[in-house]
Automatic annotation (TrEMBL):
Transmembrane segments: none annotated. One of its GO terms (biological process) is mitochondrial respiratory chain complex I assembly. This is Protein arginine methyltransferase NDUFAF7. It is an enzyme of class 2 (transferase).
Length: 362
């Protein structure tokens, strides 16, 4: 089963703090893109976004009031508690299968998982046979998550499917916890509770424009070599990805007019396919919380710096890049063998979970 929640812009506060290494990061990544474009020609928006965010999440203080942005779990413990309560209620409706995998995609600072586990320990399911699995590609972020969640016996592994493991602190139930580069590495044949909080909006996207009923890819070229800026250009010939989306029925049926520019998350579709297969084969529940719409996404790729929206093609590696999520496409990829609901607004979800009642209790 899958549930999609739609965030509104006011639910996130984005800020930028300047770090000493930001100038160096900007120079290194800008030169990397310039050199690559001069040798091989324009690059896709997906490549630009992937490399920029990989650098961004591994440098400086990204999360929290002292970093670049604050998400809902950082504001109140109630948020993570409501997420855990919803997962537990759906798990009960599924017959309380055991053992369980608790999986989080892109855990950020780890604060939502701390709130989820603290709530779990307060329920009758505190001794549940449950292990925790964090999908996190940033080693810097994974260590920050471990510092919040684990006792001192954290182990770094190089010959396992996971790269880091530990035991959560007593207040979080003393559960086994593992970190992975990919969801592919998480053990199978176990019922899973899966959550993704603002994960899909940070995955790379491709941009396309419809011309004469055909999709042409929008790519990135050098605008000014000395100032280190880039620009969008339109491919005159077809690309592998433009040929690919021309075969996808979802986009054929969207009735988009000529001149429309859309954003396509191929990485998001691949991950959703893997999640769907896991749920179908092993059983599971997935909660996706993100910015987006229930239809093809049109021109939302953007960057944030200092509370302001800025040009996403300036200062690569030092600003937050994001694009809205196409929930319709994710449900299309998941297929008809899983139940998919939503999206609904975050406010409605929290009200339905009686967050105000929980607030009065604590």
């Amino acid at each position: 089963m899958m549930r999609f929640l739609r965030l509104k812009p006011r639910f996130i506060i984005r800020t930028i703090t300047t770090f000493q290494n930001h100038v160096l990061v900007k120079q290194d990544l800008t030169k990397y893109f310039q050199d690559k474009i001069r040798i091989n020609g324009p690059i896709t928006v997906a490549e630009y976004m992937r490399e920029s965010l990989k650098t961004y999440y591994n440098s400086g203080q990204v999360f929290g009031s002292d970093g670049d942005f604050i998400t809902s779990p950082e504001i109140s413990q109630l948020y993570g508690e409501m997420v855990m309560l919803w997962l537990l209620s759906m798990w009960e409706k599924a017959g309380c299968p055991s053992p369980l995998n608790l999986i989080e995609l892109g855990p950020g600072t780890g604060v939502m998982m701390t709130d989820m586990l603290r709530l779990l320990k307060q329920t009758q399911y505190s001794s549940l046979d449950l292990s925790i699995h964090m999908v996190e590609t940033s080693k810097k972020c994974s260590l920050e998550q471990a510092n919040k969640l684990c006792s001192s016996d954290l182990k770094i592994e190089s010959d396992k499917c996971y790269y880091q493991r530990g035991i959560t602190c007593e207040k979080y139930g003393k559960k086994e916890i593992f970190w992975y580069e990919s969801i592919d590495d998480i053990p199978r044949n176990t019922f899973s509770l899966i959550v993704a909080q603002e994960f899909f909006d940070a995955l790379p996207i491709h941009k396309f424009r419809k011309i004469n009923e055909k999709w042409h890819e929008i790519v990135i070229d050098i605008e000014n070599y000395l100032s280190g800026t880039f620009r969008y250009v339109l491919c005159k010939t077809s690309t592998t990805t433009s040929n690919l989306i021309s075969t996808i029925e979802y986009y054929k049926c969207s009735n988009l007019k000529n001149g429309t520019e859309i954003e396509v998350g191929l990485d998001a579709a691949i991950i959703m396919q893997k999640l769907s297969e896991r749920i179908i084969m092993d059983g599971g529940i997935f909660l996706c919380i993100d910015y987006g719409h229930d239809k093809p996404i049109i021109d939302t790729f953007r960057a944030f710096s200092g509370h302001q929206q800025v040009n996403p093609l300036h200062n690569p590696g030092t600003v937050d890049l994001t694009a809205d999520v196409d929930f319709g496409r994710l449900k299309d990829v998941a297929g008809t063998d899983v139940l998919a609901f939503g999206p609904i607004d975050q406010n409605m979800f929290l009200d339905n979970m009686m967050i105000n009642l929980r607030y009065q209790v604590i």
